């Protein structure tokens, strides 16, 4: 969380939002903090309606699924290539590429 070189991205969700944070030790501190809640939690039913929330859940659904997100990713990839930054044609775009793009736009 403080910029350590060995930090790795850890994904978690709260409510309808999914987050990613770079942590060391595979997020052991976060896991320890969340352990009491995880112990009594249940996983959402993927693709089925929850009786309590009346909403559909899809565990870690890709944010790139929306047309707007796909277009944004296309624009970021195009910009990165123009800057000489290597990005794959498909798949996740590195956070540092997004950060560089956002810094100039």
């Amino acid at each position: 969380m403080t910029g350590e070189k060995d930090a790795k991205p850890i994904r978690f969700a709260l409510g309808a939002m999914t987050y990613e944070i770079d942590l060391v030790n595979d997020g052991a501190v976060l896991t320890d903090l969340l352990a009491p809640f995880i112990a009594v939690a249940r996983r959402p039913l993927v693709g089925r309606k929850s009786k309590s929330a009346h909403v559909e859940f899809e565990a870690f659904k890709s944010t790139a699924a929306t047309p707007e997100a796909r277009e944004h990713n296309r624009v970021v990839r195009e910009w990165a290539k123009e800057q000489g930054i290597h990005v794959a044609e498909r798949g996740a775009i590195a956070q540092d590429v997004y950060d560089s793009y956002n810094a100039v736009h």
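The beta strands are 8-14, 17-23. The longest strand covers residues 8-14.
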